[in-house]
Amino acid sequence: LGPLRSVLSESRLSPAASAVLWQRSGPRDLTLQMRVAPMEPSALAERIQPLFLLIAEYLAGSPQDFIGLLYLPSRSVASQFRGGHDNHLWRSAYSQRWGAFFEFLGMQKLQRDWKGEYARTLTGGTPFLMEVFEREKMPGFTMAAMSAWLSHAPATSSRPAGFIAHYVSASRVPPEFIPLKEAHRIRCCPQPVREQLQPGTGISEHGFISEAAYPYRVLEGSEGLVVGRGVEVQWKMQMGSPFGWWFGRLESLESGEEPGLMHALVTFDQFPKVTRWHRLELRFGDGAVRPCMFGGYTGGLRAVSAADAEHWMRFFP
């Protein structure tokens, strides 16, 4: 097993990655599986390509690790992973680094060169239509998620790596820098509403978004709503603005006078009870945009899962 240790040490794996691999495989298991005579590290690498692929799967979260393992020890091994054969490794690395961006790309159901996508995203060359919690960390956006074009922002001499958010708005809004440690503020359009709102349509790769695109669409129906549980309310200040999602608790729910129309009472515990923003009565479900009792306009309501509600509470003031 000395040659294998040499391969690991010469492949530029991080110490942590090498330790995990060695612990998972175990000297005895590797001996039984490979049954190889002592040989040079490069020769070993050429003869156990399936093992190298398995190792790379474990390390796909770090391109530096799997590139060092697959491409550097042997030309023969490297040739096996060129020409697209390493695409699933780059896909896995991408999904682990930019989970929300990966979800957005996955909605488009296209065959992708994930190595190229990784490079473009890393350099900030690709914008993604996301939703950002606590826009600009302003009190007026407490417990809200707003649509924005996001791109990865590489580190500079004056700023660490992070994200740049350009908010979708009826008026011009300065971009916001979001540090990597606040990546939890970023999400893709929630999965339960994607089929109806179609977040991958009505937009262009250059950042243009029509008023027929998903941030402007009203969610119809009342599926999954349960009194006492969390909900997200579509609300916007101006008619020409996109909707944001505002977290609240469903206090009551009744059928309306027309098919598909519902009446709800939602409380927002993030606002004091003495304010007019604490409790909202609204009609929804039929896809119409309606004036809101405390200003602006409302759209639809969506049920919130327990996991989503827990995530929302990270932003509770």
What's the quick description here?
With about 325 residues, the protein is an alpha+beta fold. Helices cover about 30% and strands about 20% of the residues.
Give a structural overview.
This protein is α+β, with helices and mostly antiparallel strands and 317 residues long. It has helices at 2-10, 15-25, 27-34, 41-47, 49-58, 63-71, 75-80, 87-97, 99-107, 114-122, 191-197, 306-312; strands spanning 128-133, 144-153, 162-167, 176-179, 186-187, 230-236, 244-255, 262-267, 279-284, 290-291, 297-303. Strands 1, 2, 3, 4, 5, 6, 7, 8, 9, 10 and 11 form an eleven-stranded antiparallel beta sheet that branches. A hairpin with an 8-residue loop joins β3 (162-167) and β4 (176-179). The radius of gyration is 25 Å and the shape is elongated. Mean pLDDT is 82; it is low at 24-37.
Structural class: alpha+beta
- Helix content range of the residues, please? 25-40%
Alpha plus pi helix count: 12
Stretches with pLDDT under 50, minimum 5 residues: 24-37
**What's the Cα radius of gyration?**
25 Å
Strand content: 15-25%
Largest sheet: 11 strands, antiparallel
Oligomeric state of this protein: single chain
N→C terminal distance: 56 Å
